[in-house]
Amino acid sequence: MKYTTETIPSALKPGDYFMMGDEASAEGAVAAGCRFFAGYPITPTSELMVHIVKRFEEVGGKFIQMEDEIGSVGAMVGASWAGGKVMTATSGPGLSLMMENIGYAAMTETPMVIVDIQRAGPSTGQATRPGSGDILQVKYGSHGDYEIIALSPWSVQEMYDLTIEAFNLAEAYRAPVFLLADEGVGHLRENFTVKGEVEVYHRPKAKGLPPFDTGDEDMIPPMPAFGEGEKLLITGSTHDEWGYRKTQVSAVHDRLVKRLVNKIRVNAGKIHRWEAHFIEDIEYLVVAYGISARAALKTVMDLRKEGIKIGLWRPITIWPFPEEALKEAAEGVKAVIVPEMNHGQLVREVERHLSVPVHPIAQVDGEIMRPETIDIRYLILDI
Amino acid sequence: MNVMFCGFGGQGIVLAGVILGKAAVFDGLNAAQAASYGSEARGSACRSEVIISKGQIVYPHIERADILGVMSQQGYDLFQEKLKEDGILFYDDSIVQVKDEVPFEQVGIPATELAIKEFDKRIVANIIFLGAVVGRTEIVSMEALEKAVRDNVPEKFLEVNLRALEIGLKMG
Q1: Does this complex have an ipTM over 0.90?
Q2: Is the CB of B59 less than 8 angstroms away from the CB of A295?
Q3: A184 CB within 8 Å of a chain B CB
C-alpha cells in the first residue's frame, strides 16, 4: 500500500545555519516528525544525541538513554508500533551490538532510522577517527535474508536532508533505514540551508487489513499502531499475514522472506539516488561516497585541469545499490577507481556490475580520505 | 582562506575554530570547520581547521594553511610545515618558543599570560588569541565575530569573553 504525504512547516526557522553534521541530522529528525529517540552514547555520535535531547525539550519528544545498544533498538521497535517515528544513533561498536534487533525490526517490518557515524574499526579501533568499515555490515550484519536501505551523506546539508529522507523511506517501505555517515561528515561543521517546508511521509494505514501481507503488488502492508483498534501480533518468528506464528510451514516462510527482500528490490528504482560530476566524455571514473567523495571531487577537478578525462560518480543510496546508474556512468571508460576508508567493501559491488577494470584504493589509517590518496596518475601511466 | 589552530584539549582550540567559522557564515561566506582530537579530550593534542570561501568548499580539510595559530609547542613543531610560505603564524608566546629561520611571518600573542593577568582565567586565552588573529588579518568582520562569540558562549561567561575578545582585537 502507498504511504501518505504531507507538507509541514519546517521545525527550524528557514535560513542558513552553521552546525555539526551530527547536529544537522538531529534537526532533520525533528523536522521529519521524529519524537522518540532511544540510544547509548558513543563517539563520534554523542553530539547527535545531546542535540536531540535539547530539541525534544523544545518540541516535546521522548528520549531514553538505554542500558545498551540492543536495548535501544528494542525500545525503538516498541515505540514505532505505538505509532511513533523513531531514531537511534551509534557507531561501529554499538552497531555490532544492535544486530540481533535490527534483524527483528526487518522481520517485523518496523520503520526506524539508525544513524551510523562510522569510525575506524575493527572493534573499538580509533574512537575519534573516521572510517567506512560498516558498509557491508549494515546490509549483511544480522542473520537471514532481508533488505535494508542505507543513505550516504557527504555534507552537513545532506546530514539534514537525508535524515528527513531516511524517515520518509522508513515509513514508505516499513524497513530499517540507515543514515550511513562517517566521522568526517558527522563531526564536520558547515553552513547549510533549511527550507520553509518539509515533505513528510506517513506509513500506510487501513482498517481490517492484515498488517503482514495484503497481496498488493508493491508488497508493503498497512501498519496500524497499538491502540488504534486493530488486532496485532508481532513476532520475529515466521508468521502469516496476520502475525500468527507459522514456523513449520515452508510456504509461509518462503513467501515472507521473498517479500521482505523483494519489497525493497522491486521498488529500488524509486529509492535510488546518485550524483555525477564531470562524467561527459570520460576515460576514467572515480566511484566514491561520504567524505571520501569530497576528496575525490577535489582530485577529479585537479586532474581535469591537467587534461585528464576523469569524472566522479557518487552513490547517495548505498543500499539498494544503484547499479543501473553506475553502468551508465561507467559506459566505455578505461578504468574505474574506488577509494574507500576501509579495505575494499563497496568496491565488491562496483566490480560485480561492471566489466571494465576496477581498482580499489584503501585508506585505513584513521585519517580523512586525502585527495592525494586518489591521485591516479600512476595508474594512467600503467594502462 | 585556510586557518588552522593547534594546541591541547581543554584550551578551547576547537571552539576558536567554531566561532571563526560561524562568524564567516554571519558575513555571508561559506565555512567548513573540522577538528582532530584524541578520546582523552583534555590534555591530548588537538587541532581545528577552518576554511572560509566565497565559493563552494569542495574538500573541507586543509592541505596548506594561510594562517596557522599555535597554542602548544607540539602544534608549532608538527604543523608549521602545513603553512604556506607567504602565510602568517600566530603563536602564544607564553607557551611556544619559535625558531628564527622560517620563511613565513611569525606573530607572538601573549594570550595565556594576559588571560591569567586580566581575568585570572586561563580558559579565555583562546578568545584573546582568536581576537588577535582576526584583528590582524580581518578575515571576518568584528561585528560577525562578536555575534559568533555571543552565540557560542554561555550567558554567565559572556561578559568576560567579550572583554577578552576586545583585548585580542586591539592587540592584533
Answers
A1: yes
A2: yes
A3: yes
